[in-house]
Amino acid sequence: MGAYDGAKVSVSPLAREGYRRRCHVPRSLFLATVLVAALWMVNCGNEGGQFTPGGGVVVSVEPATAAIISGGTQQFRVHVSGTENHSVTWSVNGVAGGDATVGTISATGLYTSPPGGPAQVVSIGAASKPDPSATDTASLTIVSITAAVTATNNPQVAMYSVTSSQEAKVTIEFGPSTSYGLRTWARNAPSGGQVDILVAGMRAFTTYHMRAIIELPGGLQVVDSDHTFTTGGLPAERLPQLTVTRPGTLTPASGVEQISLISPATTPSPVPAVVTDLEGNVIWYYETPNNLAPLPFKLLENGHMLFQVQKLLEVDLAGNAIRELTRETLNIRLANAGFNLTVNPFHHDILPLPNGHFIILT
Prior knowledge:
The chain is elongated. It has helices at 13-23, 27-43, 327-336; strands spanning 2-5, 8-11, 58-62, 65-69, 73-75, 77-81, 88-92, 95-96, 98-99, 103-105, 110-112, 120-128, 135-143, 145-151, 158-164, 168-175, 182-183, 187-189, 194-199, 207-215, 221-223, 227-230, 257-260, 273-276, 282-286, 297-299, 305-308, 311-315, 321-326, 350-352, 358-360. Strand 28 (311-315) and strand 29 (321-326) form a beta hairpin. By secondary structure, the chain is mainly beta.
């Protein structure tokens, strides 16, 4: 076929003939081919765009699923490939730009739900302007909620009430600014039903911001608008005088301090049960019956507090009594169960068990 011999390259007659047959193209045909290609590239564009040769237009909307509350907004993004013109036509339930019933969407993909509108699921569509047949859709769930923040018996505890149009888990985040930073535990809200969550752990005489985070069964979340609550508190003479000292450069573990106080016979007497943050600020307190010192009090898994104040007393964070067990009631139950045993005083500890029972010293 071909051989390299020093500075010479020899090509066989057959190869030369094949080379001529492959490479010889009439000049007129070559020019016509170039002209047709140029015309095709000019005419395939639309509204200043240009399709990718050999490929189609592809539209993709993000996020594919989302959820908001009635009256809220959601920003959608669109990715368009296969054309240099990335402009799209947005629609809601097939209506270009949407309307007052299903909500509206701007040219930049910002959807706005009708204020006070019903709970519904709408389809957000985007269609390529160069090729309207290239479309994509996203699903948006609109949740109708009502929420209110009210005061409780404890001026440092707020009640956050939420009614959701869908079954959900509700958590309240709160803090001294809209950065929040603190959260309550989660409670289940039935569809169309109300759930009440006590928000505790706030300093006295301080304005707090709080909002509900509502998690739907599929994992989507919606966020309530911001609410504010200004706490009250006890007068200074009712509070213990606390000083916090940290040895060396040690960093304390996170958490709170629970303090049981034996009050002196003074008027007014200090509050006997307080919870403080790690800076010594009182963030919760409870006025025990007859101002008795709790020996001790403990946080239960349901968020309530359990006190031993010559009886067992369970209260919620607002200070409402949930249930109690006196020595007299316990002795009657022991006798009815056939035990020849009489409990006199409750002593200095109590242990809640996972099954709801208690171990007490007596």
